[in-house]
From TrEMBL:
Organism of provenance: Turnera subulata
Protein name: xyloglucan:xyloglucosyl transferase
Pfam families the record matches: Glyco_hydro_16, XET_C
Known catalytic reactions: breaks a beta-(1->4) bond in the backbone of a xyloglucan and transfers the xyloglucanyl segment on to O-4 of the non-reducing terminal glucose residue of an acceptor, which can be a xyloglucan or an oligosaccharide of xyloglucan
GO terms under cellular component: apoplast
Domain GH16: 1-141, 151-368
Main location per the UniProt record: secreted
Keyword Transferase: yes
InterPro entries: Beta-glucanase-like (IPR000757), Beta-glucanase/XTH (IPR044791), ConA-like_dom_sf (IPR013320), XET_C (IPR010713), XTH (IPR016455)
Lineage of origin: Eukaryota, Viridiplantae, Streptophyta, Embryophyta, Tracheophyta
Keyword Transmembrane: no
PANTHER family (UniProt xref): XYLOGLUCAN ENDOTRANSGLUCOSYLASE/HYDROLASE PROTEIN 8-RELATED (PTHR31062)
EC number of this enzyme: 2.4.1.207
GO terms classed as biological process: cell wall biogenesis; xyloglucan metabolic process
Length: 416
């Protein structure tokens, strides 16, 4: 299938090309193009449903402008693997692993295409909506070059379609050759921005069909305490630097700054998270408007009974190859070790009150502490404007707008 996507401002518009069965426990293979404001990249999201089970999203930034001309998008589906292609470059592979209990599409499917309003989630996590002044939004489809086999509607088994008489079932299509594998690896290394396989908050246990972890680093580091800490940030892919407040024990509370390392020349991402009573999964990610490796910058937390200041900081360095960079596709390059960051300002910039280990934090709520003053109950107009600017220009992921992960909007999100 050749597709040319809507140009100009297509934020909030989803253009989809997919195979799908119908009825209960359906199978589906998706190309979904998530529109964007003019000048920002359109994101390609793919998904695989088997026996009604989806939630297998992967996202990538295309290496061309898909609104400028037609490009070819195709799917290879046989009993051994499913491969998504863009201009004959493999961008995703889903292997048949029914032998370990993983669902695999096995129903007759038809080809469908659609263009619809995805304002609630598609662009900037739902922060940027459709601008109807740019309507109508038009996508162009051509080149319906479809190879398949016909299934009797009275007997919907696709077993006859597994015949070696069909070219796509030949042994050469059971796996990619070395050239295709290299092209696929290049896409994963350079263009993939999200992979459900590496989304630990969403899937604490790696889905069975995904590559499993490659070892643990957090047993092998030493933290040296003092007013300054040092960590080297060149070639920091797949490393996470944390500064966070945390309690311990069951049902802990935690407030996180997590800096997700990247290849030299690519931006380090700042992820924040909030845990209350053991419940986290409240990630937001932003691209910083400066290079955090070039100079010191201040990172603060205000925490009072009305909104979230510092109580205790714990610097931490860990190997997050399974999820931090490129959705886990880019691993830590240990030839660049040691990895060093610099922390300073511990001696005078942390303000809090000491709690008895056997008591609660109710004494913290005293109006005698400056951070509990009514001026800190809400952002002032200038702070609110700055906050809105960050959300609009730099926020790249917000759990509040992740509908595949949270079909019902978390209640706290309606008050942000």
């Amino acid at each position: 299938m050749q597709i040319k996507l809507p140009g100009n401002n297509s934020a909030g518009v989803v253009t989809a090309f997919y195979l799908t069965s119908h009825g209960d426990n359906h199978d589906e293979l998706d190309f979904e193009f998530l529109g964007n404001v003019e000048g920002k990249p359109i994101v390609l999201q793919t998904n695989v449903f088997a026996n009604g089970q989806g939630n297998r999203e992967q996202r990538l930034n295309l290496w061309f402008d898909p609104t400028a001309d037609f490009h070819t998008y195709k799917i290879l589906w046989n009993p051994h693997q499913i491969v998504f292609y863009v201009d004959n470059v493999p961008i995703r592979v889903f292997k048949n692993k029914t032998d370990i209990g993983v669902g695999y599409p096995s129903r007759a499917m038809q080809i469908e295409a659609s263009l619809w309003d995805g304002s609630s989630w598609a662009t900037d996590g739902g922060q940027t909506k459709i601008d109807w002044s740019y309507a109508p939004f038009k996508a162009n489809f051509r080149g319906f070059d479809i190879s398949g086999c016909t299934v009797d509607q009275q007997n919907s088994s696709i077993q006859p379609c597994y015949s070696l008489g069909y070219w796509w079932n030949a042994k050469k299509f059971w796996k990619m050759d070395s050239k295709q594998q290299a092209a696929y690896q290049n896409v994963k290394n350079n263009y993939v921005t999200y992979d459900y396989c590496s989304d630990k908050p969403r899937f604490p246990t790696t889905p069975a069909e995904c590559p499993q972890g490659d070892g643990i680093f957090d047993k092998n580091y030493v933290i040296t305490w003092g007013t300054d800490h040092e960590l080297d940030l060149d070639r920091s892919e797949a490393l996470v630097r944390d500064s966070f407040l945390t309690s311990h024990g069951d049902n802990h509370d935690e407030l996180d700054f997590e800096f997700l390392g990247n290849l030299e020349g690519k931006p380090i991402i700042l992820q924040t998270n909030v845990f209350t009573n053991g419940q986290g999964n409240r990630e937001q990610k932003i691209n910083l408007w400066f290079d955090p490796t070039a100079e010191f910058h201040n990172y603060e937390i205000l925490w009072n009974p009305h909104q979230i200041v510092c109580w205790r900081w714990i610097p931490f360095k860990g190997n997050a190859s399974s999820w931090a960079t490129g959705g886990g596709q880019i691993k830590t390059n240990w030839s660049q070790a040691p990895f060093k960051a610099n922390f300073r300002g511990f001696d005078h910039d942390i303000i809090g009150c000491t709690a008895d280990q056997n008591s609660g934090i109710q004494p913290f709520y005293s109006s005698g502490y400056w951070w509990n003053g009514d001026k800190y109950w809400n952002l002032d107009t200038r702070q609110q404007a700055s906050y809105e600017n960050v959300k609009k220009k730099y926020l790249t992921y917000d759990y509040c707008s992740d509908r595949p992960r949270f079909p019902a909007t978390p209640p706290e999100c309606t008050h942000q």
